[in-house]
Amino acid sequence: MIRGKNSIDEPRINDEIVGYDEVRLIYKGGDGENHSEVMSLDEAREIAEREEKDLIEINQKTTPPIVKLEDYSKYLYELKKQMKNNKKPSVTLKEIQLSTNIASNDLLVKANKARKFISEGDKVKVVLTMRGRELSRRDDSKKCLYEFIDMLSDISVPEALPRDEGNKCSVILKKKK
Protein backbone atom coordinates (compact mmCIF):
# COMPACT_ATOMS: atom_id res chain seq x y z
CA MET A 1 0.00 0.00 0.00
CA ILE A 2 1.36 3.40 -0.96
CA ARG A 3 0.86 6.00 1.76
CA GLY A 4 0.89 9.78 1.71
CA LYS A 5 -1.42 12.38 0.31
CA ASN A 6 -1.78 10.42 -2.96
CA SER A 7 -2.85 7.13 -1.39
CA ILE A 8 -3.63 4.28 -3.79
CA ASP A 9 -5.02 0.84 -2.97
CA GLU A 10 -2.60 -1.37 -4.87
CA PRO A 11 -4.23 -4.08 -6.95
CA ARG A 12 -3.19 -7.74 -6.79
CA ILE A 13 -0.60 -8.77 -9.38
CA ASN A 14 0.72 -11.96 -10.96
CA ASP A 15 0.68 -14.88 -8.43
CA GLU A 16 -1.43 -12.90 -5.93
CA ILE A 17 -4.41 -13.31 -8.28
CA VAL A 18 -6.07 -16.57 -7.21
CA GLY A 19 -9.48 -18.22 -7.11
CA TYR A 20 -10.64 -17.67 -10.69
CA ASP A 21 -11.11 -20.19 -13.48
CA GLU A 22 -11.56 -17.56 -16.20
CA VAL A 23 -10.51 -13.92 -16.50
CA ARG A 24 -11.00 -11.19 -19.07
CA LEU A 25 -7.53 -10.14 -20.24
CA ILE A 26 -7.08 -6.59 -21.52
CA TYR A 27 -3.93 -5.89 -23.49
CA LYS A 28 -2.54 -3.55 -26.13
CA GLY A 29 -2.20 -5.16 -29.51
CA GLY A 30 0.44 -4.50 -32.14
CA ASP A 31 -1.83 -1.83 -33.63
CA GLY A 32 -1.81 0.16 -30.36
CA GLU A 33 -5.49 -0.54 -29.67
CA ASN A 34 -6.83 -2.17 -26.50
CA HIS A 35 -8.04 -5.74 -26.99
CA SER A 36 -10.02 -7.96 -24.67
CA GLU A 37 -10.29 -11.77 -24.48
CA VAL A 38 -11.81 -14.22 -22.01
CA MET A 39 -9.38 -17.03 -21.13
CA SER A 40 -8.27 -19.21 -18.25
CA LEU A 41 -6.14 -17.63 -15.56
CA ASP A 42 -3.27 -20.01 -16.37
CA GLU A 43 -3.29 -18.91 -20.03
CA ALA A 44 -3.21 -15.27 -18.97
CA ARG A 45 -0.21 -15.96 -16.70
CA GLU A 46 1.62 -17.72 -19.56
CA ILE A 47 1.03 -14.74 -21.86
CA ALA A 48 2.29 -12.37 -19.15
CA GLU A 49 5.45 -14.47 -18.72
CA ARG A 50 6.03 -14.65 -22.47
CA GLU A 51 5.56 -10.88 -22.91
CA GLU A 52 7.62 -10.16 -19.75
CA LYS A 53 4.85 -8.01 -18.32
CA ASP A 54 2.73 -8.13 -15.19
CA LEU A 55 -0.81 -9.39 -14.83
CA ILE A 56 -2.72 -6.69 -12.88
CA GLU A 57 -6.17 -7.26 -11.39
CA ILE A 58 -8.33 -4.30 -12.43
CA ASN A 59 -11.83 -5.35 -11.35
CA GLN A 60 -12.64 -8.46 -9.32
CA LYS A 61 -16.36 -7.74 -8.96
CA THR A 62 -17.28 -8.52 -12.57
CA THR A 63 -17.82 -11.97 -14.05
CA PRO A 64 -15.24 -12.91 -15.27
CA PRO A 65 -12.81 -10.67 -13.33
CA ILE A 66 -10.80 -8.16 -15.41
CA VAL A 67 -7.00 -8.34 -15.50
CA LYS A 68 -4.63 -6.19 -17.51
CA LEU A 69 -1.33 -7.06 -19.15
CA GLU A 70 1.03 -4.15 -18.46
CA ASP A 71 4.25 -3.17 -16.71
CA TYR A 72 3.24 -2.73 -13.03
CA SER A 73 5.49 0.27 -12.29
CA LYS A 74 4.13 2.07 -15.37
CA TYR A 75 0.57 1.28 -14.24
CA LEU A 76 1.20 2.75 -10.74
CA TYR A 77 2.83 5.84 -12.25
CA GLU A 78 -0.23 6.47 -14.45
CA LEU A 79 -2.57 6.00 -11.46
CA LYS A 80 -0.62 8.51 -9.34
CA LYS A 81 -0.53 10.98 -12.22
CA GLN A 82 -4.28 10.64 -12.71
CA MET A 83 -4.97 11.16 -8.98
CA LYS A 84 -2.78 14.27 -8.93
CA ASN A 85 -4.67 15.77 -11.87
CA ASN A 86 -8.03 15.00 -10.25
CA LYS A 87 -7.06 16.87 -7.06
CA LYS A 88 -6.24 20.16 -8.77
CA PRO A 89 -8.73 22.88 -7.87
CA SER A 90 -10.76 23.92 -10.86
CA VAL A 91 -11.30 27.59 -9.96
CA THR A 92 -9.64 29.66 -7.27
CA LEU A 93 -10.71 33.03 -5.94
CA LYS A 94 -8.08 35.77 -6.12
CA GLU A 95 -8.53 39.10 -4.34
CA ILE A 96 -7.65 42.62 -5.50
CA GLN A 97 -7.74 45.48 -2.96
CA LEU A 98 -8.73 48.99 -4.05
CA SER A 99 -9.07 52.28 -2.19
CA THR A 100 -11.22 55.23 -3.23
CA ASN A 101 -8.33 57.60 -3.88
CA ILE A 102 -6.27 55.20 -6.00
CA ALA A 103 -4.19 56.75 -8.79
CA SER A 104 -5.27 55.92 -12.35
CA ASN A 105 -1.96 54.19 -13.14
CA ASP A 106 -2.26 52.02 -10.01
CA LEU A 107 -5.81 51.13 -11.04
CA LEU A 108 -4.51 50.13 -14.49
CA VAL A 109 -1.77 47.93 -12.96
CA LYS A 110 -4.31 46.16 -10.74
CA ALA A 111 -6.69 45.75 -13.70
CA ASN A 112 -3.92 44.09 -15.72
CA LYS A 113 -3.19 41.74 -12.81
CA ALA A 114 -6.90 40.88 -12.54
CA ARG A 115 -7.02 40.36 -16.33
CA LYS A 116 -4.21 37.81 -16.00
CA PHE A 117 -6.05 35.96 -13.21
CA ILE A 118 -9.32 35.88 -15.16
CA SER A 119 -7.66 34.69 -18.36
CA GLU A 120 -6.14 31.79 -16.37
CA GLY A 121 -9.69 30.79 -15.37
CA ASP A 122 -9.72 32.14 -11.81
CA LYS A 123 -12.39 34.35 -10.28
CA VAL A 124 -11.38 37.75 -8.90
CA LYS A 125 -12.91 39.36 -5.84
CA VAL A 126 -12.46 43.13 -6.01
CA VAL A 127 -12.66 44.81 -2.59
CA LEU A 128 -12.98 48.57 -2.23
CA THR A 129 -12.09 49.84 1.25
CA MET A 130 -13.56 53.19 2.37
CA ARG A 131 -12.47 55.31 5.33
CA GLY A 132 -13.85 58.33 7.18
CA ARG A 133 -15.80 60.71 4.93
CA GLU A 134 -15.64 58.25 2.05
CA LEU A 135 -18.24 56.20 3.95
CA SER A 136 -20.72 59.08 4.00
CA ARG A 137 -20.37 59.50 0.21
CA ARG A 138 -20.59 55.86 -0.85
CA ASP A 139 -21.86 56.55 -4.38
CA ASP A 140 -18.94 58.87 -5.16
CA SER A 141 -16.50 56.45 -3.52
CA LYS A 142 -17.69 53.53 -5.66
CA LYS A 143 -16.76 55.27 -8.93
CA CYS A 144 -13.29 53.67 -9.00
CA LEU A 145 -14.87 50.23 -8.44
CA TYR A 146 -17.23 50.73 -11.38
CA GLU A 147 -14.32 52.03 -13.49
CA PHE A 148 -12.35 48.89 -12.58
CA ILE A 149 -15.27 46.65 -13.61
CA ASP A 150 -15.58 48.60 -16.88
CA MET A 151 -11.84 48.15 -17.62
CA LEU A 152 -12.32 44.38 -17.51
CA SER A 153 -15.72 44.23 -19.22
CA ASP A 154 -14.23 42.75 -22.41
CA ILE A 155 -13.19 39.50 -20.68
CA SER A 156 -15.24 39.36 -17.46
CA VAL A 157 -18.70 39.86 -16.00
CA PRO A 158 -19.69 40.48 -12.38
CA GLU A 159 -21.43 37.55 -10.69
CA ALA A 160 -23.74 39.99 -8.89
CA LEU A 161 -24.05 43.69 -8.11
CA PRO A 162 -21.41 45.14 -5.78
CA ARG A 163 -22.26 44.40 -2.13
CA ASP A 164 -21.71 46.73 0.80
CA GLU A 165 -20.12 45.07 3.83
CA GLY A 166 -19.48 47.69 6.51
CA ASN A 167 -16.66 49.91 5.32
CA LYS A 168 -16.03 47.68 2.28
CA CYS A 169 -17.75 47.12 -1.02
CA SER A 170 -16.98 43.95 -2.99
CA VAL A 171 -17.83 42.28 -6.26
CA ILE A 172 -16.71 38.98 -7.79
CA LEU A 173 -15.69 38.98 -11.46
CA LYS A 174 -15.73 35.80 -13.53
CA LYS A 175 -14.71 34.99 -17.09
CA LYS A 176 -17.19 35.73 -19.86
CA LYS A 177 -18.59 32.65 -21.55
Provide the succession of SSEs: EEHEEHEHEHHHEEE
What count of structural domains?
Answer: 2
What would you say the CATH architecture of the largest domain is? 2-Layer Sandwich
Helix content: 25-40%
How does this structure look, described?
- It is a single chain.
- This protein is α+β, with helices and mostly antiparallel strands.
- The protein folds into two domains: 14-86, Translation initiation factor 3 (IF-3), N-terminal domain (Ubiquitin-like (UB roll), Roll); 93-175, Translation initiation factor 3 (IF-3), C-terminal domain (Translation Initiation Factor IF3, 2-Layer Sandwich).
- The protein contains six helices and nine strands.
- It has helices at residues 41-51, 72-86, 104-119, 133-136, 138-141, 143-151, and strands at 22-28, 34-40, 54-59, 66-70, 93-99, 123-129, 156-158, 163-165, 168-175.
- Strands 5, 6, 7, 8 and 9 form a five-stranded mixed beta sheet that branches. It has a four-stranded mixed beta sheet with strand order 2-1-4-3.
- Strand 3 and strand 4 (66-70) form a beta hairpin.
- The longest helix is centred in the middle third of the chain and has 16 residues, at 104-119.
- The protein is rod-shaped.
- It starts with 21 loop residues before the first strand and ends with a strand.
- The relative contact order is 0.11.
- Mean pLDDT is 85; it is low at 1-7.
